[in-house]
Amino acid sequence: MGNDYSTGNPRPVKIPAERRLTVGTLVYYYPPRKDDPPCSPQRPVPVPWLQMKGHWLAEAGFGIQTPVKVRVMPGCLVLTLVED
């Protein structure tokens, strides 16, 4: 049940001009290499990881299942929609 201030309509989402994220760590488990002894366990390797989520992504055109191209340059990532 809503409060006295609720209109039932979702609040409009403001597209931020800038977002700040922190690069986290994710662990990949790589299979043993050919030169590893037989029955070697998978090797855990930490890798950098970014997560972005929020309604602001959809408002900026990055909806669910939207193909995205990532341009990579030193100190810069540029995300653009993949046009059909």
Give a structural overview.
The chain is mainly beta and 84 residues long. The chain is built from one helix and four strands, in the order ββαββ. It has a two-stranded antiparallel sheet. The protein has a two-stranded antiparallel sheet with strand order 3-4. Strand 3 and strand 4 form a beta hairpin.
Quick overview:
With 84 residues, the protein is mainly beta. It has one helix at 55-59, and strands at 24-30, 43-49, 68-73, 76-81. Strand 3 and strand 4 form a beta hairpin.
Rg on CA atoms, Å: 21 Å
Mean pLDDT: 86
- Secondary-structure class: mainly beta
Provide the succession of SSEs: EEHEE
Biggest sheet, spatial arrangement of strands: 1-2
Percent range for helical residues? under 10%
Q: Number of helix segments?
A: 1
**Proportion of beta-strand residues:** 25-35%
Q: How many beta-strand segments? A: 4
Shape: elongated
Oligomer: single chain
Give a short account of the largest sheet.
Answer: 2 strands, antiparallel
End-to-end separation? 43 Å
| Low confidence ranges | none
